């Protein structure tokens, strides 16, 4: 009897244990399945059609907070939703960038962008241990679309915006909340989704050497709203990385799910650091079917070149350029108005605001991606550089003959790049900027060419997009040829009158070139011999850099462009001509 009782009690214990185990297993399976299903729908929606996402309340609250929708987010003021808000803040060496988020456009209405007259930059010095001044405000330096550039008064001051105008955004004077500031030198700052659905990320802070590909296993790409919250980020492999450019495998959700439009991307050095980011991946427009509309385009990066761009565009249009991509690197002059006047006259020009400091190589790579759908060839030159064909042959025809005929030579590769030597011109005895433009004004140059610039076929570029300003790395099967200096050169009006030249001391745009005011690499070829690190005009400046009198391009331009009655050139500033003629 005791044995039977003990056996029955053991059976009850084992039965309870068995059913408890079954319950725990089923619960774990259901919980795991639910979370995996949510993860799958969030990052890998079915390819046939977009499905609505079912997300737990706790996760939606966290995602909303990370995306800027939380109770303490910049999108709310006194608990009310704002129609425009500060998305990001980045501190540059001499100013503060504030990125605004606007409501999306609809088929009926399009949001009005705030202007400089609508805004004041407001500085809170309460967190600054050194600042003795009270909170103050200043007008913005400039407003370009969603980017507001505020003066830099104190690096530790929190910068917000005051909306002065009573409009649909504010309804009266409203303060747009400050955001935590990012440092410009350790930041993922731009991102494009390329045609192969990879993400090209432009990032500072990796400190990679120029002109070199790196081992991708050391890095990974990270997508998310808030990189301090590991639960809400997605990691992706790096396909290639060099200089300031990483190519990442894009998560499927980013390509198909509009819920992820506010996601940012950055690069993480494994085992070390995840860099801050303001880069939201945006797709590059797909090419139109059929031949590309432009045989030859130009990419350039500039700052304060409004008074020179008219001559540069009109001349290159005459020799066969049909499309210009202008990367504006924090200009403070009337460059936007100058470009608007040119586009109104029929020139196909786009201005791309590019505020990032010392990023010329990255900017050219970014431009190469944007130009590829519409341009067979792209030249990368500056606004003080002019392509010169002494024969007068149109440039597209010259390129075709050079790259397809190759002078009767059989090359073991397709031509993907044409390198053109640069002749550097000096002040040519002038004290004031020439009224007829740089081509007619500067006619004396150095004997030997300095460096070269390139015209490239975007389809031939290596996927890493590595470049060193003057040329890109090319894909396998492509190579470069040098243009004969007797058939094509670049007139580089590098050493102009001191009033113009001294602007080069402000900041060099290339990543791996020291600013001239820094006591670094004082023997660099980028520097001007004998000038040192201070913008002080030498007594003999107007006569320097003059070894060869070269009037070839001037004579051609005067012959082709001059008004037969007045002798004026189409880009002359009549008011300036009259002033200097008095």
From TrEMBL:
Question: What is the membrane topology noted in the UniProt record heading this document?
Answer: Single-pass membrane protein
What's one Pfam family the UniProt record gives for this protein?
Glyco_transf_92
Q: What EC number(s) does its UniProt record assign?
A: 2.4.1.-
Alphabetized UniProt keyword annotations: Glycosyltransferase, Membrane, Transferase, Transmembrane, Transmembrane helix
Secretion signal, residue range per the UniProt entry? none
Citing just one GO molecular function, the answer is: glycosyltransferase activity
Family annotation (PROSITE patterns):
PROKAR_LIPOPROTEIN
Superkingdom classification of source? Eukaryota
**Is Protease among this UniProt entry's keywords?**
no
Instruction: List the protein's name.
Output: Glycosyltransferase family 92 protein
């Amino acid at each position: 009897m005791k044995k039977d009782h003990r056996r029955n009690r053991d059976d009850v214990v084992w039965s309870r244990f068995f059913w408890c185990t079954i319950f725990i297993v089923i619960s774990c399976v259901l919980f795991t399945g639910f979370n995996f299903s949510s993860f799958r729908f969030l990052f890998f929606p079915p390819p046939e059609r977009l499905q609505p996402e079912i997300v737990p309340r706790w996760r939606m609250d966290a995602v909303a907070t990370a995306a800027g929708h939380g109770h303490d987010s910049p999108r709310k003021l006194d608990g009310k939703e704002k129609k425009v808000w500060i998305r990001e803040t980045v501190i540059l060496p001499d100013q503060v960038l504030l990125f605004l988020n606007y409501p999306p456009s609809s088929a009926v209405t399009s949001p009005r962008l705030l202007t400089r007259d609508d805004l004041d930059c407001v500085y809170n010095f309460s967190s600054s241990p050194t600042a003795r001044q009270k909170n103050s405000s200043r007008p913005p330096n400039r407003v370009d679309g969603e980017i507001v550039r505020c003066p830099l008064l104190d690096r530790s001051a929190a910068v917000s915006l005051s909306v002065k105008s009573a409009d649909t955004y504010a309804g009266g004077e409203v303060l747009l909340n400050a955001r935590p500031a990012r440092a410009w030198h350790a930041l993922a700052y731009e991102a494009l989704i390329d045609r192969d659905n990879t993400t090209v990320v432009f990032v500072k802070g990796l400190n990679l050497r120029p002109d070199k590909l790196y081992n991708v296993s050391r890095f990974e790409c990270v997508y998310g709203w808030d990189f301090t919250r590991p639960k809400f980020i997605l990691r992706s492999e790096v396909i290639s990385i060099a200089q300031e450019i990483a190519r990442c495998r894009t998560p499927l959700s980013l390509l198909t799910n509009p819920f992820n439009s506010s996601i940012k991307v950055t690069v993480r050095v494994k085992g070390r650091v995840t860099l801050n980011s303001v880069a939201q991946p945006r797709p590059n427009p797909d090419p139109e079917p059929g031949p590309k509309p432009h045989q030859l385009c130009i990419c350039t990066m500039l700052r304060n070149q409004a008074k020179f761009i008219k001559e540069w565009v009109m001349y290159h249009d005459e020799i066969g350029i049909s499309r210009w991509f202008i990367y504006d690197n924090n200009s403070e002059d009337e460059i936007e108005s100058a470009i608007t006047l040119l586009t109104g006259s029929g020139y196909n020009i786009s201005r791309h605001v590019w505020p990032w400091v010392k990023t010329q190589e990255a900017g050219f790579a970014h431009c190469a991606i944007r130009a590829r759908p519409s341009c067979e060839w792209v030249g990368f030159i500056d606004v003080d550089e002019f392509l010169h064909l002494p024969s007068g042959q149109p440039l597209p025809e010259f390129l075709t003959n050079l790259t397809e005929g190759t002078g009767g030579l059989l090359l073991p590769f397709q031509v993907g790049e044409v390198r053109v030597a640069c002749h550097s011109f000096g002040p040519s005895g002038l004290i004031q900027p020439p009224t007829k433009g740089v081509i007619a004004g500067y006619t004396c140059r150095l004997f030997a060419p300095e460096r070269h610039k390139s015209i490239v076929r975007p389809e031939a570029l290596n996927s890493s997009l590595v470049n060193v300003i003057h040329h890109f790395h090319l894909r396998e099967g492509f190579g470069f040829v040098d243009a004969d200096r007797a058939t094509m050169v670049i007139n580089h009006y590098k050493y102009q009158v001191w009033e113009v030249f001294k602007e080069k001391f402000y900041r060099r745009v290339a990543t791996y070139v020291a600013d001239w005011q820094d006591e670094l690499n004082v023997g660099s070829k980028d520097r001007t011999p004998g000038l040192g690190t201070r913008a002080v005009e030498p007594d003999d400046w107007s006569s320097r850099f003059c070894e060869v009198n070269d009037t070839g391009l001037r004579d051609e331009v005067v012959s082709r462009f001059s008004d037969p009655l007045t002798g004026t050139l189409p880009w002359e500033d009549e008011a300036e001509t009259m002033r200097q003629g008095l």
